Amino acid sequence: MNTQKITFGSGCFWCTEAIFQTVKGVRAVVSGYMGGQIKNPTYEQICSGNTGHAEVVEVEYDADAVSLDEILLIFFKTHDATTLNRQGNDVGTQYRSAIFYTTDEQRQAAEAMIKKLTDEHVFSKPIVTEITPASEFYKAEDYHQNYFNENPVKPYCSFVIQPKLNKFAKEFLDKIKPELLS
């Protein structure tokens, strides 16, 4: 197994976690915080927008089962990479679009994907995704982990996450773990 990790910020980590948990080849998805100035931040501190951290998911995947380009395309197609510090009603630097890379290959692949999506006019506005070296990852509180699967009937899950999962399934059906399709 060729295990790799990459960390994404794309708004609320509950949505991003739910999507990547369904992807074939993804071994683990952990919600957390990255990119800020204080050590061991709490969710309440992150929500203030004053720590510099983004809500992120650390995605661990088998690169022999799903390519980095596929992972990056899923990231870009499942959030709005054209809005600065905002995803829907969530506003602030903690909701920024960001790729925190751990290798030069990841940085180059992210830059190439942005160029490809830009050249193909996939989005009507410029991509504003930050590409930056990974810094210390802080795991979010336990109640944030596996959020959608633990809370499927909560309003946010029903009205925000489930529609995103439905849209994802329409475009990336071939990337969904087979056991989730039955």
Short recap of the structure:
The chain has helices spanning 13-21, 43-47, 68-77, 104-119, 147-150, 155-172, and strands at 3-10, 26-34, 54-62, 86-87, 90-91, 97-101, 130-133, 138-139.
Write the layout of secondary structure elements.
Blueprint: E1 3-10, H1 13-21, E2 26-34, H2 43-47, E3 54-62, H3 68-77, E4 86-87, E5 90-91, E6 97-101, H4 104-119, E7 130-133, E8 138-139, H5 147-150, H6 155-172
Parallel strand pairs: 6-7
Antiparallel strand pairs: 1-3, 1-6, 2-3, 2-8, 4-5
Helix pairs in contact: 1-6, 3-4
How would you sum up this structure, described in words?
By secondary structure, this protein is α+β, with helices and mostly antiparallel strands. It has a single domain, classed as Peptide Methionine Sulfoxide Reductase, Chain A, CATH 3.30.1060.10. The protein contains six helices and eight strands. The protein has helices at residues 13-21, 43-47, 68-77, 104-119, 147-150, 155-172; strands at 3-10, 26-34, 54-62, 86-87, 90-91, 97-101, 130-133, 138-139. It has a six-stranded mixed sheet with strand order 7-6-1-3-2-8, covered by helices on one side. A hairpin with a 2-residue loop joins strand 4 (86-87) and strand 5 (90-91). Helix 1 crosses helix 6 (155-172) and helix 3 (68-77) crosses helix 4 (104-119). The chain is globular. The chain starts with a strand and ends in a 10-residue tail after the last helix. The mean pLDDT is 95.
